[in-house]
Amino acid sequence: MKIDFAINVSRSEAMRRYVLGAALIGAVLISPAVPSWIALFACYPIFTAMLQWDPANALFQQLVAKFSKSTQDAVFRSSTAM
What we know:
This protein is mostly helical. It has helices at 11-30, 38-51, 55-81. It is built from 3 helices and no strands. Helix 1 runs antiparallel to helix 2 (38-51).
C-alpha cells in the first residue's frame, strides 16, 4: 500500500490541532495533578498541524477508498449478473 504525502489536513483542522496541543501543554503547566507525560501527546497534533499531513489520516483515507472501491465493484457485479 503506497501512502501519498499530499496535504491531508485542512487549515481549520490544523488550527484545531494547534489549540488541542496548546491546551494539553497548558494543562500540564497549570495543574500539578496532570501527569507530565501528557505533554508528549501534544507533540503529535502540533507536528501534524505544522506539516499539514497526518499519517493516521492518510492510512484511514486509503482504507476507506479501498473499501468503497471493492464495494462499488461488488455492487456493479451484482447488478450486471441480473
